[in-house]
Known about the structure:
The longest helix is centred in the N-terminal third of the chain and has 39 residues, at 9-47. This protein has helices at residues 2-7, 9-47, 51-55, 61-75, 85-99, 104-124, 134-145, 149-166, 176-184, 190-201, 215-227; strands spanning 82-83, 132-133, 173-175, 212-214. The protein has 11 helices and 4 strands, in the order ααααβααβααβααβα. Helices cover 68% and strands 4% of the residues. Helix 5 (85-99) packs antiparallel against helix 6 (104-124), helix 6 (104-124) packs antiparallel against helix 8 (149-166) and helix 9 crosses helix 10.
Amino acid sequence: LVTLVFHSSTGLVVAKFHFSILCFHAFSCCLNSVKSVCIISSVERLAMPSNEENTFADVHPFLLSKWKSIFITFFDSNNSKEIDWSDFYLITKRVGDLYGVDSEQMRLTRKRMQPLWDGLVELADLNKDEKIQLAEWVDFLKRCENGQSAEMRWIQEYMNFIFQLFDVSCDGKIDFPEYIDGMKTYGVAECTARRAFSLITDACDHDHAKAFFDKATFNNLWKQYFFSKDKLATGNHLFGLVE
């Protein structure tokens, strides 16, 4: 065919025609092969569990959903998908903005935030990068659930800090305005906080003025949130609405 190209203009056309047919056929074969590989790969990906499913396979799904929720809502304040010191600092800034830089709440936060952060890093930062990824957070809470004393002490210390932060009047109770303001420091919308307060105090909107919970109740709600697998437990809504 190549020889005909040089001797005949008609032959050139014929040679081009045959070459195009061969190229198209070869391209079609390659395309079909690629499609087959892509389809097989897609099926394999669908059949394989995700890394997250593998990592958290031993955690109860409802607990996992709550642990993820509080990771995002209360700890990952800057939405970086990990917890670092800047998240704790941002809470301190919000406390100053809401309660005042000279308030008791601000003094409390300045005093407690650094030790709380240092304690969390010591217990949960497995790869020593000064950040807490979701997998490390879940592993930390799994150890809490299994009764590890140091981990449980940190959870209790953070609970004590939250109660003191919210209890502005220092009367040993958290009422509706105190709860709403406290939730705002963690970026929770007021409408969400109002609904959550209603659920955890079993109060209708018009009863909010009389509703409150003391520290013993708060402690029980806290434990229910972190460790109860019961979807009807009141504490599930302590930090916002849980489906």
